[in-house]
Design a protein that fits this description.
Length: 417
């Protein structure tokens, strides 16, 4: 009902501003700024990162130059997130250390608002604007991957200290556990290009995808490995069942066969190096010494559940590890209940479920943007699943994927093609 009403309210604005003529200089400059923002999104050595300043600028620029389309669906989207932020603010007032809790909540509010603006940007011109986001993200992924591989291999003086953490590739990120998942969406975008472009572009896309997959592998992030496997499997399945003809299905099967062979070859070759083999053996185990026991990860999650049940308003963000356990919860669906209480945490659960559920329904609709939607949807679903083993509530790319999905879903049916 909300989506239908949103489409009705949205219809006149879409017809009036679909850029029938040449774009103005302001529009061209704004689109370039969007691409540069996402191209810089892989440089996250510190917090806040350069992408945050650029995103905040876009939050003001895009509405001013008319590159957003607000609908009732998107207004509902941001309203719900604002309620979650208000619940987190309430939880922060209950924390013994207000400053870090308030800062964390402020960052959450920024991510919600940025997601809303980017969703409206996607809704303004679905295919073109989504391609700008993903092409910029691809550039960021390639730069981050190059840094990760150079650092891991020690190809430049000082590169290992700068681009690796704990003997694992981290690229231009400060954490290999975020570096790896960040590469999943641009990897899928490479598959999309390989399926929809001519031979030369398709071949180059496969090379770029393989390059990022190698960097992701060297992050030695168990969550990233699972994320990539789930996302690729889901993308391949959805692309197969929604393919317009038999030739496209055959191309998908061929691509998967080639990709599987290449990945298997790369992994086998990498395992010939003792340092890689030992780290893979260590990271592949899901019963690490720091996972088990009352002071391990699972023990900490048991403590978190007890706190959640006894604190309906939450305990405030950034309070669990300093007060109750020596590390964070490593489960976003538990940590968000601690950070924002039952209301704010419940909203997070609901928004993830709605994005997966409504997104799956949207996948079955034939639209011009569906191939791009599959990329965002598969990457989001896999990242949401990874949230069960890591605190991902401040991952910027999580909210970008959600923005693309909701932005494309909010477009009126008559302008989707």
């Amino acid at each position: 009902m909300i989506a239908t009403a949103g489409h009705r309210a949205h219809r006149p604005a879409r017809r009036a501003g679909e850029f029938a003529g040449p774009k103005s200089a302001a529009h061209v400059l704004a689109l370039a700024c969007v691409w540069l923002t996402f191209a810089s999104s892989g440089v996250v050595f510190t917090e806040p990162a350069p992408v945050d300043a650029m995103s905040m600028g876009l939050m003001l620029l895009l509405p001013v130059v008319g590159l957003v389309a607000f609908s009732r669906m998107l207004m509902t989207y941001i309203t719900v997130w604002l309620i979650a932020a208000a619940s987190a603010c309430l939880a922060s007032t209950l924390s013994p250390d207000l400053a870090p809790s308030a800062t964390h909540t402020g960052v959450s509010l920024y991510l919600y608002a940025a997601s809303f603006i980017f969703a409206a940007f996607v809704a303004r011109r679905p295919v073109e604007h989504t391609q700008i986001i993903f092409s910029g993200w691809l550039a960021a992924g390639l730069v981050a991957s190059a840094a990760g591989i150079i650092g891991y291999a020690g190809l430049l003086p000082g590169a290992a200290e700068l681009f690796t953490k704990f003997g694992r590739a981290a690229g231009t990120f400060k954490d290999p556990n975020v570096f790896g998942p960040f590469l999943v969406a641009p990897f899928l975008y490479c598959l999309h290009l390989a399926l929809t472009r001519r031979a030369l572009t398709a071949g180059l896309s496969l090379v770029a995808g393989g390059f990022m997959a190698a960097a992701l592998f060297l992050s030695f992030s168990r969550g990233a490995w699972i994320n990539l496997a789930l996302a690729t499997s889901l993308y391949a399945y959805l692309a197969f069942i929604t393919a317009p003809d038999t030739a496209q299905r055959q191309r998908i099967i061929t691509l998967l066969a080639i990709g599987a062979a290449v990945v298997a070859t790369v992994v086998v070759l990498a395992l010939q190096f003792d340092t890689v083999a030992k780290l893979v053996d260590q990271r592949a185990s899901f019963e690490q010494s720091y996972d088990i026991g009352p002071d391990g990860r699972f023990g900490g999650q048991e403590k978190a559940i007890g706190l959640i049940l006894s604190n309906p308003f939450g305990i405030g963000a950034m309070q669990f590890s300093p007060t109750y356990h020596h590390e964070e919860v490593h489960n976003v669906y538990l940590s968000i209940l601690l950070n924002a209480g039952w209301l704010g945490g419940g909203i997070y659960w609901i928004m993830v479920a709605l994005t997966v559920g409504l997104g799956l329904r949207h996948v079955l609709r034939s639209t011009a943007s569906r191939p791009l939607f599959l990329v965002a949807y598969a990457a989001f679903a896999a990242t949401a699943a990874e949230g069960a083993i890591i605190d991902s509530d401040h991952w910027r790319h999580f909210y970008v994927l959600m923005a693309v999905i909701w932005g494309l879903m909010s477009v009126p049916r008559e302008v989707r093609r």
